[in-house]
């Protein structure tokens, strides 16, 4: 299937490197030099500064939208109207109303929309799903998740620090990943609480968010996201009645990705511990794209769809509503 990418930044580049050979046919970016760079001087890849010209290409089957938060929804809507299947990066929009419009449009145009929550496709998370589906740790009780980075010099001057572009701080940027994973394992949350603070960065959005979610069964997800995590880290723990699963690391600066299973014995002695390490580079981008292509070809619902994005955004909005100011004013 032929692909066009809108947005030639870091994520657009990662997407392009995980498509396979001769799949990418067009790139659009407002800075056309970046589009040329992503096309890597390949004369067979068309380059545009106006993304609507890319949408007019009949040979394009799938459009990947990898732009800043405030333009994701509008570009995705245009792609849907052009009857293209779409892989749009999280969080899809800055509010739930825009996601609802996309759901209606996608149904009307009969196209598939996959949301780029690529952490679902990391090896440790896939292995975690398999262990839970085989009832290895029994009924799930609660989740504890942490995800953070330390930013960089000038981080408070970047677009992620501008609420008009980003929609908020680390909650809408990093927090949505942990919320999405928690929903995937525990289901919908009926009780939402949270607080957020701007401890370090001089910006009008939060640099730390603390999230407390509960299902109607009382299962809990206790989550923290941060951009004052001076050593990049990812940790996702799932507790069942018979054991615990810990997925940690995302490769690169986040450390080796690994999965640890702690299996309780009937006598509740120290658990039997098994550790799997992922020594290869991040494969989630390729796995996620291939899953989307499979959904299109088999006319099935994408692994992570607009409904998932909507439910996650509703939680984000509730936490922002609880906290009347987003970080410092």
How does this structure look, described?
- By secondary structure, the chain is of the alpha/beta class.
- The protein folds into 2 domains: 3-117, NAD(P)-binding Rossmann-like Domain (Rossmann fold); 119-285 and 312-322, Dihydrodipicolinate Reductase, domain 2.
- The chain has 10 helices and 14 strands.
- It has helices spanning 10-16, 32-39, 51-55, 69-81, 96-109, 123-133, 163-166, 170-186, 284-298, 306-322; strands at residues 3-6, 24-28, 46-48, 62-65, 85-89, 113-116, 140-148, 191-197, 208-214, 220-226, 233-240, 243-248, 257-263, 272-278.
- An 8-stranded mixed sheet has the order 8-9-10-7-11-12-13-14, covered by helices on one side.
- Helix 4 runs parallel beside helix 5 (96-109), helix 5 (96-109) packs antiparallel against helix 10 and helix 8 packs across helix 10.
- The longest helix is centred in the middle third of the chain and has 17 residues, at 170-186.
- The radius of gyration is 20 Å and the shape is globular.
- The N and C termini lie far apart (47 Å).
- 43% of the residues are buried.
What would CATH call the class of the largest domain? Answer: Alpha Beta
Strand percent estimate: 25-35%
CATH level-4 homologous superfamily of the largest domain: Dihydrodipicolinate Reductase, domain 2
Looking at CATH, which topology of the largest domain would you report?
Answer: Dihydrodipicolinate Reductase, domain 2
In short:
This protein has helices spanning 10-16, 32-39, 51-55, 69-81, 96-109, 123-133, 163-166, 170-186, 284-298, 306-322, and strands spanning 3-6, 24-28, 46-48, 62-65, 85-89, 113-116, 140-148, 191-197, 208-214, 220-226, 233-240, 243-248, 257-263, 272-278. With 329 residues, the protein is an alpha/beta fold.
């Amino acid at each position: 299937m032929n692909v066009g990418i809108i947005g030639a930044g870091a994520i657009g580049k990662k997407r392009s490197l995980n498509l396979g050979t001769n799949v990418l046919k067009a790139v659009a970016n407002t800075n056309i030099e970046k589009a040329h760079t992503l096309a890597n001087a390949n004369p067979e890849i068309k380059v545009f500064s106006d993304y609507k010209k890319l949408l007019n290409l009949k040979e394009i089957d799938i459009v990947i939208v990898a732009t800043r938060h405030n333009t994701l929804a509008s570009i995705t809507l245009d792609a849907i109207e052009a009857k293209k299947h779409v892989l749009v990066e999280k969080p899809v929009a800055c509010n739930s109303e825009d996601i609802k419009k996309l759901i209606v449009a996608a149904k009307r145009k009969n196209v598939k929309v996959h949301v780029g929550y690529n952490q679902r496709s990391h090896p440790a998370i896939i292995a975690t799903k398999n262990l839970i589906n085989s009832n290895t740790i029994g009924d799930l009780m609660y989740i504890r998740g942490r995800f953070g980075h330390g930013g960089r010099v000038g981080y408070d001057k970047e677009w992620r620090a501008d609420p008009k572009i980003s929609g908020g701080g680390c909650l809408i940027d990093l927090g949505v990943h942990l919320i999405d994973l928690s929903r995937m394992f525990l289901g919908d949350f009926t009780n939402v609480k949270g607080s957020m603070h701007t401890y370090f960065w001089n910006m009008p959005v939060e640099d730390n968010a603390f999230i407390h979610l509960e299902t109607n069964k009382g299962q809990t997800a206790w989550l923290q996201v941060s951009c004052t995590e001076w050593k990049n880290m990812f940790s996702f723990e799932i507790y069942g009645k018979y054991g615990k699963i810990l997925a940690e690391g995302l490769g690169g600066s986040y450390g080796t990705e690994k999965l640890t299973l702690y299996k309780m014995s009937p006598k509740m002695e120290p658990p039997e511990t098994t550790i799997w390490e992922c020594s290869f580079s991040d494969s989630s981008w390729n796995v996620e794209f291939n899953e989307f292509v499979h959904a299109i070809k088999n006319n099935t619902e994408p692994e992570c769809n607009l409904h998932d994005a909507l439910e996650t955004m509703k939680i984000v909005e509730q936490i922002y509503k609880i906290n009347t100011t987003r970080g410092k004013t």
